[in-house]
Specification:
This protein has about 240 residues and is α/β, with parallel strands linked by helices. The chain is about 35% helix and about 25% strand. Strands 3-2-1-4-5-6-11 form a seven-stranded parallel beta sheet, with helices on both faces. Strands 8-7-9-10 form a four-stranded mixed beta sheet, with helices on one face. Helix 1 links the parallel strand 1 and strand 2. It is elongated and about 65 Å long. The chain starts with a strand and ends in an 8-residue tail after the last helix. Bound molecules: NADP nicotinamide-adenine-dinucleotide phosphate. NADP nicotinamide-adenine-dinucleotide phosphate (NAP) binds next to helix 1 and helix 3. The site of NADP nicotinamide-adenine-dinucleotide phosphate has 25 residues, from helix 1 and helix 3.
């Protein structure tokens, strides 16, 4: 029998934490070892309300960490990771100042996978954006809708799509317009228009499972990778060596 991957989950009580815990129940590749959150969920062998309370022996046992928390939480997790050189999957968004630089710095010693959106469908939309280079003279707009509890606006995904779009068409595009409505999981729309025609590329997440599936896929993949900063491109194109 293959050795199970011992998982550490940071943010297990959150909306994404719930989605990941649900998937873990039917995924025999993982052994849920340790969670960090304000209230134990009962789904892990050990639960801690504070990173500083995790014993060194437990830290050493974790094969991979998954983080869906807040940027300030992730900043606390990074130094701990560096002690053990264990891999990290992070989907946290909304970084400010030099916070993402610290994520990049951590990847010098640890394998670090970060993606603002872990859905395979959204990654496919990103590939389609590259084709918009042929109509770079069109006008472009980006829009996103998320649930009312979402903290960052525009979303991390919208920021990623904005960068992709500006790179593809080689010109400045207005920042994404974000709406916070009801319980929407995440809708991202790119509109391209000329005087004669209009194109819409739209991704609509129908649940959070889609992001959780991406995170677990990435966790299984990263345990075999050397240190470096990895993205959905590396996961979806396994021949890529990732960025060092
Ligand atoms: N990459 C993707 O595919 C993707 C998809 C969806 C969401 N996200 C991002 O993932 C993150 C979490 O989303 P969510 O919807 O699950 O949020 P959420 O429901 O607000 O949950 C946040 C979780 O993080 C914990 N947390 C908050 N602040 C913390 C801190 N300073 N230190 C440690 N833990 C902290 C919370 O723990 P307690 O409540 O127990 O304190 C909770 O478990 C957000 O940044 C969101 O934008 C990414």
């Amino acid at each position: 029998m293959a050795k199970k991957i011992k998982l550490g989950l940071f943010g297990s009580t959150g909306k994404m934490g719930v989605a990941i815990r649900q998937l873990l129940k039917s995924d025999s590749d993982f052994s849920p070892l340790v969670e960090v959150c304000s209230k134990p969920t009962g789904d892990f062998e050990e639960s801690f309300s504070d990173l500083k309370k995790i014993p060194a022996a437990t830290l050493k046992q974790v094969d991979v960490w998954i983080d869906f928390s807040r940027p300030e939480g992730l900043m606390d997790l990074l130094p701990l990771l560096q002690q053990t050189k264990k891999p990290l999957i992070s989907g946290t968004t909304g970084f400010e100042g030099n916070q993402f630089t610290k994520v990049e710095a951590a990847s010098k010693k640890n394998p670090v996978f970060w993606a603002s959106n872990m859905s395979v469908g959204l990654w496919t939309v990103r590939q389609a954006i590259k084709a918009l280079s042929t109509i770079s003279h069109f006008d472009f707009a980006l829009e996103e809708i998320h649930h009312t509890q979402k903290k960052d606006n525009p979303s991390g995904t919208a920021v990623t799509l904005h960068k992709d779009l500006e790179k593809a068409v080689g010109k400045k595009i207005p920042p994404a317009v974000g709406h916070r409505l009801g319980g929407v999981f995440g809708i991202h729309t790119i509109t391209a228009a000329s005087q004669s025609e209009m194109i819409k590329l739209e991704h609509n997440a129908l649940n959070r499972t889609v992001f959780a599936e991406g995170a677990l896929k990435a966790a299984k993949w990263i345990v075999k990778q050397p240190s470096g900063l990895y993205s959905m491109d590396d996961l979806m194109k396994p021949t890529s060596k990732g960025k060092k």
